[in-house]
Amino acid sequence: MKFDLKALRARKEQVQEAHFEYTQGKISRRDFLRFSSMLGAGAMATGLLSPLERFQMDQAKRLLAQDMAPTRGGTIVNALGIDTTRFDDPARLSLVFPSNYVRQVCDYLVRLDPELNLQPALAESWLPSEDGLTWTLTLRQGVKFNHGKDFNADDVVFTINRLIDPETASGFAGAANYVTGAEKVDDFTVNIHTDRVAADFIYSLFLYQAAILPADWPGDFFTNPWGTGPFTIEEFAPGEYIRFKRREDYWMLGADGLSLPYLDSVEFVSYPDELARISALQEGSLHLAPASITLIDQYQSLPGYDFKSVQTGNLHIAIMQFNQEPWTDPKMREALKLSIDRQAYVDTLYLGYAIQGDDHPIAPGMYPLAPADQTPRQQDYEQARALLAEAGYPDGIDLTALYIDPASDGGFTEGFALFLAAQAEPAGIRIALQPTPDYWNIWLDDWGPNHIGVSNWAQKNTASEMFNLAYRTGSVWNESHWSNPEFDALLEEFDRTLDQETRVTQLAQLTDMLSNDGPVIVPGFRQDFATMVSKLHYNLHPQAFVWMADAWLEP
Amino acid sequence: MLRFILRRFVTLLITMLALSILIFGLSEVLPIEPALVILGRESTPEARAALSEEMGFNRPLPERYVNWLVRFISGDWGDSYRLGAPIQPLVMRRLLNSTILAALALLIISPISLFLGVIAGLYRARWPDRAISAGSLLTISLPDFVVGLLLIIIFSWWLKLLPADSSLRGADIDLAQHWRKLILPAVTAAFVLVGYITRVTRVSMIEVMDSPYIRTAILKGLPYRTVIIRHALRNALIAPIAIITTQFAWLVGGLIIIEQLFNYPGLGSLFADAARSNDLPMIATSSMITVSLIVFSQVIADVLYGLLNPRIRFS
Fold it and tell me: Is residue B14, in this structure, part of any structural domain at all?
């Protein structure tokens, strides 16, 4: 599709148009706000709210200021990082837990809040150029790094160019492979160039690896933990705990007009054993911890604690390799999909704390533009058996499921594998379970005929990121070896379209293609659980990001 | 005596050398690709190959073994793949924690089990023996996590006397500050061993009381008390003390479940985590440390045995 020059130039009109679409009910309110902030027009969008909405917003703000004014001080000990792992370079992060230590010390250019709305951080605003190949970022002024240096454009240029340097070997270079470089315009303006139009570019600035480091950073993060973020590292014992101390001169202000954070310090402590976590909660030496749904009764009976959950886009997945028998036959893919009762998945594995999936990874409400009215397949054994017979398997078929060994993920994947095998059996699909200790060595290989893979995925920032990682032909993590030229072409179009309504339609088409013809079963999207002291005001993030700057503790 | 000790030390060195070859060989045959563990699953094959080359994984096996052994002996234990940090300070920190916990556990175990064992041996087949034997059987059969949980429920949830969370903060363990956190894990560990050592002591006591020289002493008309204290105990305690010494290694390096239950930062959980996360250098180090602990405590037990037992002392 041709890139629409005019539409870009008339950004303001676009936002107004998007607002019109929103009032017409064509896009959701959240998508409207996301879209306007994506084009750097967040304030403009607020100006477009109806008088009633503005009144409600002001009301909320006033309530916040009067009754619920955050108080300062206190320490939060949390067990949200499963492991206190050391690493040298934020640019090489690949796991969310260590990235959460970076989040306390460094800032990103933008931030996805727990509502999944994009917020300005070190970048105050951003605008694409007319050809859509350059994004101009206006940076925040008056920000200081914790080692004393003033933040300016040099640091952004240093960070971005370092991320895309092959020497750095950053995951950023793969996930945002359209970024070709950053250049300083003046002290507080930076141009970032891309080699193709990437409508979701701005989200890439919140990839784990994109934490802004100062231009004079000498390397080794735990020796030189330099950043503009809300906390500094006070004490660190690898594998045991890490303690962060409040910074006095953080740039972001709280509701009381003073520098964030509200808390004096935050500790991440490793509690690998859930029983040990519960006894630490019981005696109050732990304030915030992940919780598993199977122990919900125990957590809910802890006095002074609240059990909280947050919907995520994290998923279990069953993979039918597209280039292997019998999955080359779409009837066989459909037959396996039809044998799953998705409500049973939600009820048995998550006691209802999950939503049904429609055999593609884009969870409703969890991604910008995601189709809201997803109607997953109903279980239909009769039709599944008929399809099997049509495909040449009147007596059913024997399969082997490869899945992540319970020793390495605590049985998290095995639970779904067992469920899948039990569900498929009555359709005549007999699945033998094969826990695979080296699953992550073989997950991208050809598994041979009559295999499925059972695994799981974390939510990504955008649908484009997910598809370009795992569903485009030949993409780096394409475990199902799915290849559909039509899908690839539409994905490319989706990536370069800036018109919001078109993108909504395109994404719906993409997810439909995956759902109808695709090589994966996504039975549902789970919620994440945590228990926290009732006095703590802290919002869980759907992507398991931890950012303690605006958390506060009632006295 | 000196020759005896010397001989034990030579045997020890040979044993450890053999075990080091075994440990090194084991980490060779494990299906773990170090570069993959370090760089993660999104790394490119080229980057992994380059790292393998850099880390010397392409050199001949004997050369690598000698390099590894020399570095290990000189105290350079490499970096942990999982934690990305040098192993030596991590292990030393945990070793100190574990040694303190083990010492505390032994302080509880020794007087109780020796006393009860002697009593049971003296009152063989009468009610004190029956009660002690039944009690020790009970503690032996209760697994450590059950004991730990019971203690947590009673002493920290119900009575709110002692903390169940034994995680530590600060550069090093500080007894003045942390002593309360040590009690429950130490008592749990003690619980598991106390029955076993009591039974060993009982058997040993019975054996000694049946021996001809005790009968002679009694027939000679020595007061019963003198016979027990001066003649019997000395010999009866040799075996239990030797066994207590060998258990020290287990208490230092093997308390995996107890450490996890109380979240106590000891060696056992460090090693267990290493095994779970394919952390080869840490696995190799932990195996070497555990083996050294066991072999050393065995030698110390032998030496103690020799010192206490005149038949060995004078031969």
Answer: no
CB contact under 8 A, B47 and A169: yes
- A445 close contact with B: CB closer than 8 A: no
Tokens of B118: 């002697």
Q: Taking the C-alpha atoms of A533, A534, A536 and A538 in order, what is their torsion angle to the nearest 10 degrees?
A: 100
Whether B263 has its CB under 8 Å from any CB of chain A: the answer is yes
Whether residues B116 and B262 share a domain: the answer is yes
- CA-nearest residue to B166 within chain A is A280
pLDDT of residue A19: 56
pTM to 2 decimal places: 0.81
Question: Does the pLDDT value for residue B259 go beyond 60?
Answer: yes
Q: Which domains does chain A have, with CATH numbers?
A: 1-68 (no CATH), 70-79+230-304+534-555 (3.40.190.10), 107-228 (3.90.76.10), 311-527 (3.10.105.10)
Residue A284 has φ and ψ, to the nearest 5°, of 85, 10
Structure tokens at B160: 């709110």
**Terminal-residue alpha carbon distance, chain A:** 57
**Has residue B27 been placed in a domain?**
no
Q: Per residue in A336-363, pLDDT tens?
A: 999 999 999 999 999 889 999 999 999 9
Residue ranges in chain A modelled with pLDDT below 70: 1-68, 81-85
CA distances from residue B150 to A413, B143, B157, B184, B265 in whole angstroms, order as listed: 31, 11, 10, 10, 21
Q: Domain for residue B5, yes or no?
A: no
ipTM, two decimals, is 0.80
